[in-house]
Amino acid sequence: MLNYIHAECYKVTRRKYPYLFLLLVLLGEGLVLFSMWFTNVHGNHNSLENAISILVLMLSIGLYAAIVVCDMVYSDQYRHNTLKNEVSFGLSRARIYFGKTLSAMITAIVLMAVLVGAYLGIAFLTLPNSDPEVTQVMLATLGMGLLTALPLWLGALAVTMALFSNVRSNVAAAFCAVGAIGLLPNAFKLMALLTNNELFVKLHDICLTAPLDYFDGTWASCTNAWAVGMGWLAVSMIVGYLLFRRKEIN
Fold it and tell me: Taking a C-beta distance cutoff of 8 angstroms, is the pair 30, 124 a contact?
């Protein structure tokens, strides 16, 4: 299994895809921070804590970035018949499925570390730290936010990888992932408003987006996020593997 994961991660590093993704996101981060610095030059007062608060608000984007990461790892293997070759070579379905899922998780964590680290590094270099105590509070909030978001990101990755493994088209799998991550909680919220049924409220609260919507920087919200994220991860990996094990690959 470790050799398979190493090989999958190596294949990701040999593609242009992750580097182009990093470049685009880093340019976006640079644009945000440059605009804050530029307006400071012209009389505004954007400080380091403002930049950190923006990053906290953007944590939910990581749920949808799971689609990009899974696309990096899977790389249209159904269309190119490389998945069929792996099965024909004698690799077990379990090694393929769980190996790719773990490779996607490793890739996502590395990308997250690079992007968050680059954002904070540029922010510290370009923006004034007008109130160190407030900055420390915001950094603590960011740390709690990352700890809260991590299981939800991993849950989103597991859902997306289950779809990529069982849907032949990467585009169709991506659309299904958007539905599971973003549209499903909104549908439950709408049904709760229309029917005033508590069941839809409870269903909404166990969706992947809900813990970040309710994030308040406390351990209680973090614990809830871990319960929701790990629940999605466990169910998605089990169901995804059972479907993948029976799927005809040709």
Answer: no
**198, 121 contact by CB (below 8 A):** no
The answer to whether 12 and 72 have CB atoms below 8 angstroms apart is yes
> CA-to-CA distance for 153 and 209, rounded, in angstroms?
10
Full pLDDT tens readout for the chain, 250 residues: 778 888 888 888 888 889 999 999 999 999 989 888 888 877 777 788 889 999 998 899 999 999 999 988 887 777 767 777 777 777 788 888 899 899 999 999 999 999 999 999 999 998 888 788 888 999 999 999 999 999 999 999 999 999 998 888 888 999 999 999 999 999 999 998 888 888 999 999 999 999 998 898 889 999 999 999 999 999 999 999 999 888 777 6
What are 168's two structure tokens? 């032949």
21-25 own/partner pairs: CB under 8 Å, 24+ apart: 21/68, 21/72, 21/111, 22/111, 22/114, 22/115, 25/115
Task: Please check whether residue 97 is in contact with residue 241, taking contact to mean a CB–CB distance below 8 angstroms.
Answer: yes
Q: Given its phi and psi angles, is residue 217 left (phi above 0), alpha (psi -120 to 50 degrees) or beta?
A: left
DSSP letters spanning 5-53 = HHHHHHHHHTSSHHHHHHHHHHHHHHHHHHHHHHHHHTT----HHHHHH
Residue type, 73: V
